[in-house]
Design a protein that fits this description.
Layout lengths: L5 E9 L2 E7 L1 H6 L5 E5 L7 E9 L4 E7 L3 H7 L9 E6 L10 E7 L3 H13 L3 E8 L8 H5 L4 E6 L6 E2 L2 H10 L6 E5 L2 H14 L3 E4 L15 E4 L2 E4 H4 L2 E3 L5 H8 L3 H10 L5
Parallel strand pairs: 7-8, 7-11, 8-9, 9-10, 11-12
Antiparallel strand pairs: 1-2, 2-5, 3-4, 3-6, 4-5, 12-15, 13-14
This protein binds FE2/S2 (inorganic) cluster.
The site of FE2/S2 (inorganic) cluster has 12 residues, from loops.
Length: 278
């Protein structure tokens, strides 16, 4: 049985964002929307959790998107077609619970947009109406909106600078759509932590059920190390085995943000050593 994970396609989405199609039939066979993989590229390197953007059981492929923001992601970004990952463990995490009916609004921020695509496809196959909101700082950083559009009834683009679409944050566009009469029944969001926190606050105020995908620090991905602990509804849970999607209104974002910053100094140093000026 083929257990290697070989890159069969690579595409630059932005200067620092790469899309990889990986032949990993064992992972693809068992993947469901909302799950992720953990990747390692060197024997002594860190293990990086990455959302699954797309999967094909028939072709045995997993598609992932990697943003070069640190030492390891730069190493991943340098891989080429034909290269294999040292580890490509997955699928990890739980399948996201999706509704069977209604009108879902999916929100993707930055490279999180790829992670909502499998949800869109599954929701549409169930007959759920799908509206997608995609946001980035500027037009050049918007990615995969065309892919998401292929499985959405409508897509709304947002940029902070107004270079394309709505000028402002995804939450502003969400409220604008609701004010115009959109009757969303469910919301799912993936993106940077501040965006997901804003989605949680907005949807709570609006009485809209929402789930967000948390990406805390992870090590083993099996619930053993405790690195990815989050507090949800007053309970300690692990994003790798109890998530990564959680009820947005129950997440303790203060704690999640603080824990995410734990190793910032070391991450910045590793980024400098990798040639990332930040
Ligand atoms: S990554 Fe170790 S417990 Fe989740």
């Amino acid at each position: 049985m083929d257990t290697t994970a070989r890159i069969i396609e690579k595409r630059d989405l932005t200067d620092i964002t790469k899309l990889f199609v990986v032949h990993a039939p064992l992972v693809a066979r068992n993947t469901a929307p909302g799950q992720f993989v953990i990747i390692r590229v060197t024997e002594t390197g860190e293990r990086v959790p990455i959302s699954i953007t797309d999967f094909s059981r028939a072709a045995g492929t997993i598609t992932i998107v990697v943003q070069e923001v640190g030492r390891t992601s730069v190493l991943i970004g340098a891989l080429e077609v034909g290269d294999t990952f040292l580890d490509f463990a997955g699928p990890l995490g739980l399948e996201v619970p999706l509704p069977e009916e209604g009108h879902a609004v999916l929100i993707g921020g930055g490279f999180g947009t790829g992670a909502v695509f499998p949800l869109a496809r599954e929701l549409r196959s169930r007959g759920v109406r799908v509206s997608s909101i995609v946001g980035a700082r500027t037009r050049d950083l918007l990615i995969l909106d065309d892919l998401l559009a292929s499985e959405s009834d409508e897509v709304h683009l947002c940029t902070n600078d107004g270079s394309v679409g709505y000028r402002g944050f995804v939450t502003g566009r969400l409220e604008e759509l609701q004010d115009a009469g959109a009757e969303f029944t469910h919301c799912f969001a993936v993106g940077p932590m501040p965006m997901m926190r804003a989605v949680a606050e907005t949807t709570r105020r609006r009485g809209l059920p929402a789930m967000v995908s948390l990406d805390p620090l992870m090590v083993d991905g099996t619930g053993m190390c405790g690195g990815c602990r989050v507090t949800v509804g007053g309970k300690s849970l692990f994003a790798c085995v109890d998530g990564p999607f959680f009820d947005a209104h129950q997440v303790d974002f203060d704690e999640a943000v603080a824990r995410l910053m734990t190793y910032k100094e070391q991450e910045d140093l590793a980024g400098e050593l990798a040639g990332l000026g930040r």
